[in-house]
Amino acid sequence: MRILVLSDLHANVTALDAVLEAAQGRWEQSVCLGDVVGYGPDPNEVTARLRKLGTQTIRGNHDKAVAGVMPTDDFNPVAKAAVDWTRAQLTPEHLSWLAALPPGPLATDGIVLVHGAFQDEDEYVFTPAQALDGLLDSTAEVTFFGHTHHQGGFSYQDSRLEVLQIHPRPTESFAALRIEAPRRYLLNPGSIGQPRDGDPRAAFAIADLDHQTVEFWRVSYDISSVQERMRQARLPEPLVQRLMLGR
Ligand SMILES: [Fe+2]
Question: Cα–Cα–Cα angle for 15, 217, 16, nearest 5°?
């Protein structure tokens, strides 16, 4: 089965629609690693898309903060302003759906989903040391994580941990990774709504474990139209600027 892996959508429906169009006909099941909302201008639209698709979704820290499941004490002022704005926009139905999202790790369709680190959903996984727990403790050979907004990941076999540098070039739509059992993988599809790895294109992955491949995709979208809606909504300017930079 081919699984569409979405993460860190951050209320950017223009990016999400570009992703769904590029992925059309290439997947049977969809999953989401959290941060459905927060930062972007379209929280209701993005939540509605996922609910309509029936995407198996776990919660991210922004979903928790917006839904009142966690306090925003640890959020910087810019992120907190976006949380407050988002909460005021969301319909009661969408807010309830976000509040009820399960935490990771969640096993589904032969893979495991986490938002941040395997042992702590709010922790970031940037380094091999931070990736080790997930690689060793996950119940599946392939685990997907988000939260950092960096596409790529890690693999582990025979006490050796490898950093996987996977980035489609600007002229390419995707780069494929071959999955080699019994090697273990901790993979990040990247962020749809707010990439931070230097490539402003929306990022996602398609996993086809029957054929031992994971494709890491990038797709361009109309960033300026999203920036225009963010300015109309008076969302903080640093959040507007970073979309074009991809950082
Ligand atoms: Fe995020």
Answer: 15
How far does the centroid of ligand 1 lie from the alpha carbon of residue 62, in Å?
7
Q: Tell me the fold of 2-245.
A: Purple Acid Phosphatase; chain A, domain 2 (3.60.21)
Per DSSP, the three-state class of 191 is coil
DSSP structure class, residue 234: T
Distance between CA atoms of residues 64 and 121, nearest Å:
11
pLDDT tens sequence across 119-157: 999 999 999 999 999 999 999 999 999 999 999 999 999
Ligand 1 (ion): which residues have CB within 5 A?
8, 35
Using DSSP bridges, classify how beta strands 160-164 and 142-144 pair: parallel, antiparallel or unpaired: unpaired
The residues spanned by each domain of the chain are 2-245
pTM strictly above 0.90:
yes
Tens of pLDDT along 15-33? 999 999 999 999 999 999 9
121-124-130-131 Cα dihedral, nearest 10 degrees: 70
C-alpha closest to that of 235 among 97, 19, 43: 43
**C-alpha span between 152 and 189 (Å, rounded):** 7
Contact 179, 164 (CB under 8 A): no
Q: How far is the CA of 35 from the centre of ligand 1 (A)?
A: 5
CB-side neighbour CA atoms (13 Å) of 243? 29
The conformational region for residue 191 under phi > 0 = left, psi -120 to 50 = alpha, else beta, is beta
Output the CA 98–ligand 1 centroid distance in Å: 14
Strand partners, 142: 185
Task: Find out whether 238 and 78 touch, Cβ atoms under 8 Å.
Answer: yes
